[in-house]
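Lab notebook, bench 4. The sequencing result for the construct came back, and we need a structural model before the next group meeting so we can plan mutations. Quick request posted to the team channel:

Model the 3D structure of this chain.
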Amino acid sequence: MGEFWHNAKKVIILALPIMLGSAGQNIIALTDSLFLYRYDENDFAAVGFASVFYLVIAAIAFGFSKGGQILIARKYGEKSIDFVKKYFWATIIFEAAIGLVVFVLLFFFAREILNLFINSEIILQKSLDFLKYRALGIPFSYIGLGLVAFYLGISKPRFIFIDTIVLAVANFVLCYALVFGKFGFAEMGIAGAGLASSIAEAIAFVVFIGLMIFDRDIKIYNLLKIPKIEIQWVKTIIRLSTPILLQSMIGIGSWFIFFSLIEKFGEHNLAISNLLRVVYLVLSIPCWGFGTAINSIVSNTIGKGKERRVLKQVFHSSIVSLVFTSVFAIPTLLFANVILEPLLGKADSSLFQDSIVYLHLLFPIILLYSVSTVFFNGVSGTGETIKCLQIQFISSLFYLGITYVSTIYPIELGLYVAWASELVYWSIQLVMSYLVLKSGSWNFIKF
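Done. Here's the predicted structure in C-alpha cell form:
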C-alpha cells in the first residue's frame, strides 16, 4: 500500500498541471465549439469537423515533441545536463522547420484536402472559413509544443499550467469578441473562432518565452547558448518520434475519418456528434494529464535503471486516473439533464435532447479510456514506439471498420453503433499495452 501511495502522489503532482497543459489544443477546440454552439448549428457542426482536422495537423507536432520529451526525460534521469540541452534545441529547430512546411500546405491546399472527405457544401465552406485563419497559429503551436516537451521532460510542468490558463482566457475573450462581434469588432462567426484561436496561441507563446527567461531553475542548462546542431541528434529524434507521429496521426486521423463518415448521416447528426465531442474533450482532460505524466515517469525510471518498477507505476497510475475521471464523469454523464442542460440548453433544445442517449454511452467509454491511455502511454515511455504504432493501427482498424459498416448499412441505431465502437478501440489498446508492459522485454533505444 505504501508503494501505491508513493506512485499515486508522484503521478498526481506531475499530472495536475499537465491536465491543462498537455491538452492545449483540446481546450481551444472546446472553447471554439461552445461559442459556435450558441451562434449557429451549421457553424457548430462544421467546427467539430474542422477542429478534428486541425488536431490531425497538430498531431505531427505532438508526435515529434513527445519524442523529444522522452529523450529529455531519459537524459534528465541520467543527470546528463549537456544532452538535455542538445535534445531541447534539436526538438525546437526541427519543430520550427516542420511547422513552416505544414503551414504552407494547409494555407494553400485546404480546399483540395477537405474535398476528399466532405459532401456538404455548407460544411465545406464553413470549414475553409475556419481553417483560413486557424492556420496562422501553426508556427506558434509547433514551437510551443517543443517548449512543453522540455518542461515535461524535466518534470517541471508548472509553467505549462500557467501558460495554458493564459491561452484559455485569451481564446475565450477573443472568441466572444470575434464570433459575435463584440467590443467594436465585426461579427465573423466560425471564421472569428479560427482567428481568435490563432491570436491566443501567439499570446501564449510570447508569455511562455517570458516565463522561461525568468526561470532560475533552468539556468543550469544554459539554453540561450545554442549548441552546434549535429545531424545525429535530429536522426535520433526522428527515429524515436516517427512511430509516435504515425501513431498519433492514425489515432486522431481515425477520429477525423469517423467524423467524415458521420457527416453522411446529415448535418443534425454531425452536430450531435460535435456536442458529444465537446463533452468528451472536457472529461478527457484528466486522462490526457495522467497519460502524459506516466510517459515521463516511465522514461525517467528507466533512465535511473529501475525498470522493474514500471508495471506497478503504470498500474497504480491507471487506478488514480480512473478515480479522478469517475469523479467528473459520473454526475456529468449519468445526470446529463441536470448538469449539462443548464450549460448547453438553448431555446431550441432538440439538439441537446437528441444527444442524451449518446451522453449515457460516453460513460463507459470515458472510464475505459482513463485506464487504457495510461497503459498505452506507459508503453510509449519505455521507448517501444514501434509496438505503440502496431497497437494503434490494430485498434483503429477495428474502430473504423465498425463505424464504416454502421454508415453503409443504415440502421435505426447507426449513430449509436458508430460511437459504441470506441469501446472496442480502447479495449484493444488496453489489452495489448498490458501484454507489452508485462513481458518486460523492451527494446531500449540508445539515446
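The mean pLDDT is 83.
Will bring this to the meeting.
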